[in-house]
Amino acid sequence: MTDEPEFDLGPVPHRPPIATELVERLIAAQFPEWAALPVRPVDTPGWDNRTFHLGDDMLVRLPSAGEYAGAVAKEQRWLPVLARQVPLPIPAPLGEGLPTADYPHPWSVYRWLDGEPAATAKVEDTGAFAVAVADFLLALQRVDAADGPPPGLHNWYRGGPLRTYDAMMRSAAADLPDGAALLDHWEAALAARWTGKPVWFHGDVAPGNLLVRDGRLSAVIDFGTCGVGDPACDLVIAWTFLPPAGRRLFRERLAVDPATWQRGRGWALWKAAVTNDRPVLDALLADD
Fold first, then answer.
1. Which part of the chain is the Aminoglycoside phosphotransferase domain (predicted)?
2. What domain range includes position 30?
């Protein structure tokens, strides 16, 4: 039994394709001052959003389904507030697009941030990188959380209880050869209850959302799952990207208590299990 709230994630959203021509029409109709700029899709398509270059210095970001559209107003409202208080560049909203008959969701135009995702970039010093990520998260957590968005469908309940993903985790573990061991770690994460004060979190601190220039962390992008709640979800990068020495530095810099670290491991475990990410699962099982 648990007194944690239970949330229904619902079915996997249907995500129809978004054509370049549609984006061109949206820009021409709602931002005619940019209508002459070329539109082209980015190299790596996202899941929650489809992103397109707009000229050389801007991007257009469109939710891929209605279930993801709730993040638009949140980002428009809060990213300018957060940007003033974190040590690295984050996306700056330049305009908010309205739904139309052809595209029924709100959407955004942002300033383009240069950098290569850490997933493919060469990081010169993973220890320094780990400390830089931790310092960014510490600054984010210091931002006044009053009136900030609590966990909800807008961010798929990041910052809320891990138990929201319990059924999904158990289903994934049933198909994995070391599922029993993974569930032992999962149970430990569920038992590590959060009793802290809600703080700001990013919600998806993944290698694809950390930009690198000259071998160093240069910007943090994609705040669609940000919110105010339990920051343990932001610890996932410790296992998905950082080597053991960097992981230790990351934990020390954040001064993370054992229960929060255990919940962070749970978030990483869930994501790795449902995607069958073997290297991350092995890292989690080895990191006792």
1. 45-267
2. 20-112
Alpha-carbon distances of 269 from 14, 30, 31, 168, 182, rounded to whole Å: 25, 43, 43, 11, 8
Q: How confident is the model at residue 45 (pLDDT cuts 50, 70, 90)?
A: confident
Q: Specify whether the CB–CB gap between 10 and 65 falls below 8 A.
A: no
Non-local (6+) Cβ contacts of 234 within 8 A are 137, 201, 202, 203, 205, 264
Q: Do 168 and 257 fall within a single domain?
A: yes
Please give the average per-residue pLDDT across 259-266, as a whole number.
98
Q: Say yes or no: 149 and 243 in one domain.
A: yes
Are 73 and 183 in a shared domain? no
Name the band, by pLDDT with cuts 50, 70 and 90, for residue 191. very high
Q: 152 with 281, same domain?
A: yes
pLDDT tens digits, one per residue of 63-118: 999 889 999 999 999 999 999 999 999 999 999 999 999 999 999 999 999 999 99
Last residue of a domain, one of 50, 77, 112: 112
